[in-house]
Amino acid sequence: MVTGPLTDVLIEDGKQLLLRLDQSGPPFDAALWNYFSEMERWVLLVSVRNVSTLGPRVFYKTVQRHLLREPKPRQLVLDDVQLAAPNAPVVAAVRVMIGSSPGWRGTRMTRNIVNGILLQDCYVYRA
């Protein structure tokens, strides 16, 4: 569980996981690290288009398989990753802020309020 600062190692771990998901699925349309101040922790949110047909179990099994294959040392663990629907409030707020595109971003945003959603701190890979 990531409760300290978002480090360069975690950002790279997240990127490597997402590159593997890009290669073998499931297809995702948004991914970002988001700091949830009420939980005092960072979560890697991955938005999957067909979440309702795919189901969370398949997604988390795939993520765990990729994490086990990644070279060590790494800091990212399955508990740090959360499946998000494409219309999840945080994902929608990020899209309003930076737009929607399939490419890689690498954008950090801090202290923003969009449509009543607080984006305390986030690092966006893809929106």
Task: Characterize the structure shown.
This protein is of the alpha+beta class and 127 residues long. 35% of the residues lie in helices and 31% in strands. It has four helices and five strands. The protein has a five-stranded mixed β-sheet. β4 (107-114) and β5 (117-126) form a beta hairpin. The longest helix has 17 residues, at 8-24. The two termini are 24 Å apart.
- Please report the total strand number as a whole number: 5
Structural class: alpha+beta
Strand content: 25-35%
Number of helices: 4
What is the overall silhouette?
globular
Radius of gyration: 14 Å
Mean pLDDT across residues: 85
Unreliable sequence segments: none
Distance between the termini: 24 Å
Main beta sheet, described?
Answer: 5 strands, mixed
Total separate domains: 1
| Strand arrangement in the largest pleated sheet | 3-2-1-5-4
Q: Encode the helix/strand succession as letters.
A: HEEHHEHEE
> Share of helix among residues?
25-40%
